[in-house]
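We recall that each integer encodes one residue's backbone shape. We quote one record:
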Amino acid sequence: MFINSTDKREMKYFIRKEEADAKFEWTKEKVQKFRELNDVLTKMQSQLIEQMMHIFETFSCFEKEGLSFLHGFKITGTYAFEKEILSKYDSIEDMTAEEKEEYELWDNIGYLASKELNLWQLIFDSGAGDFLPLSKVRIMQSFDSWHFSLPSEEEDFSVCSYLYHFLKYNGTISLEDFLKCTEKDFYPYVQVTLNCPVSEFRSYPFYHLRDDMIADILEKRALTINAFDWSQENIQKIMDVNSWVWKKTDELKSYLAFLSKALQKAARTDPFFENWDIDGHIEYQGSGATDIASFEMQRLMSERADFNHYTLRCSSDRPEIDDSMHDSEENLNWNFEVYKEHFTEEQQKVLFHYFMHVVFIDDWMYSLNDVIRMREEDFKVCLSIDF
């Protein structure tokens, strides 16, 4: 079996954790440190819920005050992990060999564990006005400390849901590593999303998985069926899709502008909203089967397509919206490479959106035969607001 460099690195730290956990022995000092970290994370877990509810109340007010496009937004909350010492080392130009070794250790095990750790998340659905079922379970969950093989006389307290997940499901951070952590190594990550796929079993930052077997199968499918009939009827359908994408872009820009204004206003009276980032993009979320793609296949293609290659952003630092792919001095028409050679002289004058190029030409998830079967109502504006 071929093992790439990432696999080798992960295996190295996976073995390191196994060996460290096998040798680990509890002492009174370690038990006390474990208790303290559990208390800290239990408190932080409660604070995360409070932050999410605060955001829900604020965005509900935005919706009532006219931002009706926010209807159905979801809030995802989790805790990210990064050793504070990494930021300190980043400012050191000439690290010692020992410092480099420590930096490399925490940088690697933190990165490799992030996908597993981010699976612990709470999701609040504004449409239902409540947390999703698994999130409710996590809020209520606590685990007996005997799960971690503490001395019997120390098994008199409960471990919070996040800590249990942290130690049980990551593959690279040992118990000894954990006991070297402090409160400053954990920080909240809260995100508001609209029309973005949100799963209770997958964390949003890792939802778009490109390096798996399903993605490979779908890419091979698209290449196989991409023999395209450039009839005028099909060209017109491509033109229609292009016009729909432009229409959604105008919608996206208006949403970003409205939200930017609302958050700037909220920040004047509420410090929580002083720092924010908004990302917006367009997705195609096929709502029904076609003659060449089942509904299940449509869903899988949508999950794995590189829609975020065309993303518009604004933030508390830069509240203006920059559409560099279309607002540049070159005024580039993105119909080159494939489309243009099949168009009439008049059709070549139609300004093609970057999305039409990067998603349907550069990416291999959708064939052109899929494109001409698309429906306008299945194009969605997706937003994520980070705090």
